[in-house]
């Protein structure tokens, strides 16, 4: 009888347990969870804080009892595994309530310990008004702190998924919120110019966004306890009353009532490394494509491990729920003899930021540059569905591909509608090894409420193929900074658009529809850098000019990309 | 100088003209359009009738003037090409206003005549209250008829895209509506059990849906003209006052104030066939993969042509806007020397039916059967995004794949949220040649507002792979009709679900969570056909039983699929 011991009862661990039972009725399966809950909706925590999910109970997807009756899994909560004893194939478990310790034998051990919030070494961080968010007790503590301290201002440090979601949750509760981010952008899986749309949205919503700003010190100022028997306050709550004085890297100070630390997560590897399991170069547990650690009886899944990047094959840390769930399921397959292999990670991800969604898959431009991988990129901005049907919103899409093979390297999108769909399509296309040429031909659902006869996906492929075939020479927004004397800028939009949207300093304005008559106003001995609002009319203008002997480049993604990248 | 003549100024024709100009500034491009409008939003017509698009002008995307100034295309509306004279490479054009005729020479001719509504030979159909919907004048006529006749009841014949959209539009205007459909289902690109969800929605909205019912005769009863000078009625309007008496194939008669004929479309091939161009077996214009007809100087695109089915390679008629647009663009590429080829047609399509969307790609089961193509199918029903986040709706998905290769043959989905996304993903996966094994690994956007850690796509692939690997033996809803004495039905849902949802007659009920204790109530010498609500718990139950020596099959898609298929 196979005995499987699982450490960690959330995404990867719970998936492994359920799948293992489906594959074997005889196996003994024990799942240890350090905290009080298993299989809770960790991605839902900010939405309960913000009020979108009013019922806390909805976040508790399974209980030890339901897991027992459905899957005959022996779930032991409040049970921390404190050591792995590889030679005798046991783990040492400490009961978090009684403090008792005992050993449990395993044939196979599955590590699904997750990743813990990184808490930087900032003076004064340890105080009752500073929290991070990983699990249900963390969530409860944050809500308790908000309510007991009647927080009027909150500060979130870190503009990643959790930081952005917490920013929105707090703002939604009517709490004035500051978001501090050390980098020059939030949502680092995307590139800065795409994150620019998010910056704009955050500012428009009234959040105090501070990029390029670090938190350097925290001072907790507790107030005198004020008993409020009517409100049901007890002693434990009263110490929360107070505020924090924050010092920032800019030298500024600010006062806040609640501090959320969300600068990132770090794989939980102490158990694994104490047991002598090999860690990878990025600090995660190293596994093979079957999720096997350096000990063949021990597997590891989820946020604690390193997987291989889909494009480069390099080890990466990708703390996302989807991969964790599939890895957990796959480990059970492997233990029971199926020849399954994990197929690398694209890191497809999405984040809701107020009315916007921002999503990405594959490599971003920053990483392509770092890895010295040749790439070309296109930007398109087009409506999420037929523009004449109500509710259409702009989809801003960035697609990166290999100039030699035409294969998709990565994609990012941002907008208010249809963002998940476009990145999902490109994630599947990338995984399938599609080229931009093949992407032109994809047949997507079209009816006015859902799409366009030429979807943004087709359009991005058309633009990319125009560049790859040499029909259009591209210029990018970051190349407009220092024009040579042999270059001029031509804005082919209508004058009304220039007034409404702004324009690039020094550009000549000839609307595309007048270009044929006014072409001789342009010099033939200079390179003409053409732009319109999103790139379509620029393309039309470049073609006209090329056919008449002018040298042109088209600003990819047009003024819309240029402008957002300047912010 | 190349001279290109285009017949038809909507999707395919307009795309060809615009692309041709981008590829050549020197070409002479003439576009003939029989009607008064070019490049109008034909897919938007029902939504103006229904009121979703209040401004008629939004449907007019381009004008002859805008096409002239942007693309230097000589657009001639109200100009019907009445003959193609292949030997001298001219077309004969009749001016619809003056009646004058003239010839115009071409180097290349592009046919984009579209498809016309099929008007069956039913006695009495020719009357002022009977309309079909193809273009702006048709739309105007329908609105005029509704308003002048103060239509209180309307009848739509045909449950395809236009029929369904017109049904909704009329219903939305407060007009009591009957939908007649000869087949046993609407939306024939999908299979009947998937269309069942649409039938349910149509009935719930209060539309009088009559499947398996044909219109056999129409009698127009005009009333006495009632002058209403205040309402601005003129003579032309007054003859509309009246009603129609419809006779149905069931022998019933019914009275209606407006009749919309939407039983399908037929490729407009008379010009082509009169000119001796080869037609294909389905009655469309035959073209090669570069859209070239049997005359190398003549190309054809859009609803008038036959393309090759993605799976079978057989000629098919696919009157959809997306293919028409891409074909139009491609013809210009081919004329100007690019080696582009049309990559077959999957027929990806979607229709909004009140709050539902129903969509499909690739082959459906009916066609797979007809073509004797081996297939297996799975059904999954799961939430459009994390169930604990507000707004999640059931996605009902059907996936068909080749049992030998595992390749995707087709897919259908229906539900209130995320339907377009799922079919788009599967359309791309099918086009890329992905197998169900590869589909397990796709990484899709996940955050609670947008998806699930195990998306419906992954789940469908998991179920399919469980079947393909032999871990689960499937049984389908249509196989439950005549059980042998060696089979029994086991319902593993909770008793409360049976009360609320109903159950299959004769099934034993043992909830999955009690199955381990009560397993010995089941006979080992019979095949146990297990079902739950959607198939997940059935899978768990089958595994338990199999491991204990029982023979089982799991009802794919569970009771939800079974029940909708019975309707």
What's the helix and strand layout?
The structure is a homodimer of 567-residue chains.
Chain A: E1 3-7, H1 11-23, E2 28-32, H2 45-50, H3 64-71, E3 74-76, E4 79-85, E5 90-95, E6 101-105, E7 108-111, E8 115-117, E9 130-131, H4 136-148, E10 153-157, H5 161-172, E11 176-181, H6 192-204, E12 208-211, E13 215-222, H7 235-238, E14 242-248, E15 253-256, E16 258-261, E17 265-267, H8 270-274, E18 285-286, E19 298-300, E20 305-308, E21 315-316, H9 321-335, E22 349-353, E23 356-362, H10 365-370, E24 376-383, E25 394-401, E26 408-415, H11 419-431, H12 436-440, H13 456-468, E27 474-475, E28 487-491, H14 495-501, E29 508-509, H15 515-518, E30 527-531, H16 536-547, E31 551-555, H17 558-566
Parallel strand pairs in A: 1-2, 1-7, 2-3, 7-19, 9-16, 10-11, 10-16, 11-12, 18-20, 27-31, 28-29, 28-30, 30-31
Antiparallel strand pairs in A: 4-5, 5-6, 8-17, 13-14, 14-15, 20-21, 22-23, 23-26, 24-25, 25-26
């Amino acid at each position: 009888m196979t005995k499987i011991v699982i450490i960690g009862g959330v995404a990867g661990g719970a998936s492994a347990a359920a799948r293992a039972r489906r594959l074997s009725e005889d196996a003994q399966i024990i799942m240890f969870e350090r905290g009080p809950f298993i299989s809770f909706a960790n991605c839902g925590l900010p939405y309960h804080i913000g009020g979108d999910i009013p019922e806390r109970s909805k976040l508790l997807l399974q209980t030890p009892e339901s897991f027992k009756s459905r899957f005959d899994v022996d779930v032991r909560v409040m049970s921390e595994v404190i050591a792995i004893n590889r030679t005798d194939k046991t783990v040492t478990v400490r009961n978090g309530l009684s403090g008792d310790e005992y050993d449990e034998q395993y044939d196979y051990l599955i590590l699904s310990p997750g990743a813990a919030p990184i808490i930087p070494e900032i003076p004064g961080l340890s105080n009752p008004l500073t929290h991070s968010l990983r699990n249900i007790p963390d969530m409860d503590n944050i809500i308790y702190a908000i309510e007991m301290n009647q927080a009027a201002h909150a500060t979130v440090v870190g503009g990643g998924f959790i930081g952005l979601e917490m920013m929105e949750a707090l703002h939604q509760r009517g709490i004035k919120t500051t978001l501090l981010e050390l980098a020059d952008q939030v949502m680092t899986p995307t590139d800065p110019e795409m994150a620019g749309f998010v910056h704009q949205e955050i500012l428009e919503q009234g959040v105090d966004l501070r990029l390029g700003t670090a938190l350097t010190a925290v001072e907790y100022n507790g107030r005198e306890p004020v008993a409020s028997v009517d409100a049901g306050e007890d002693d434990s709550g009263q110490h929360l009353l107070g505020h924090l004085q924050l010092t920032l890297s800019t030298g500024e100070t600010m006062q806040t009532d609640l501090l959320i630390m969300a600068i990132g997560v770090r794989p939980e590897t102490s158990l694994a490394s104490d047991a002598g399991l090999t860690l990878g170069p990025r600090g995660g547990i190293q596994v093979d494509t079957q999720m096997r650690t350096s000990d063949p009886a021990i597997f590891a899944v989820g946020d604690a491990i390193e997987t291989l990047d889909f494009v480069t094959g390099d080890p990466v840390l990708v703390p996302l729920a989807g991969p964790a769930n599939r890895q957990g399921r796959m480990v059970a397959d492997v233990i029971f003899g199926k020849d399954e292999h994990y197929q690398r990670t694209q890191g497809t991800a999405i984040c809701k930021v107020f009315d916007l969604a921002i999503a990405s898959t594959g490599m971003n431009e920053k990483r392509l540059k770092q890895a010295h991988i040749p790439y070309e990129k296109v930007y398109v901005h087009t409506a999420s569905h037929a523009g004449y049907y109500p509710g259409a919103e702009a989809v801003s899409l960035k697609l990166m591909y290999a100039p030699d093979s035409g294969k998709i390297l990565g994609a990012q999108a941002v907008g208010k509608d249809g963002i998940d769909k476009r990145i999902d399509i490109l994630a599947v296309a990338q995984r399938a090894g599609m080229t931009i040429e093949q992407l032109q031909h994809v047949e997507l659902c079209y009816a006015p409420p859902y799409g366009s006869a030429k979807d943004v996906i087709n359009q991005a492929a058309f633009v990319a193929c125009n560049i790859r075939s040499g029909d259009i020479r591209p210029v990018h927004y970051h190349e407009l900074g220092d024009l040579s004397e042999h270059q001029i800028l031509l804005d082919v939009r209508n004058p009304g658009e220039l007034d409404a949207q702004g324009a690039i300093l020094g550009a000549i304005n000839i609307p595309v529809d007048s270009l044929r008559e006014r072409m001789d106003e342009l010099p033939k001995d200079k390179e003409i850098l053409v732009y319109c609002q999103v790139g379509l009319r620029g393309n039309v203008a470049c073609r006209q000019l090329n056919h008449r002997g002018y040298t042109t480049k088209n600003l990819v993604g047009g003024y819309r990309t240029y402008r957002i990248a300047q912010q």
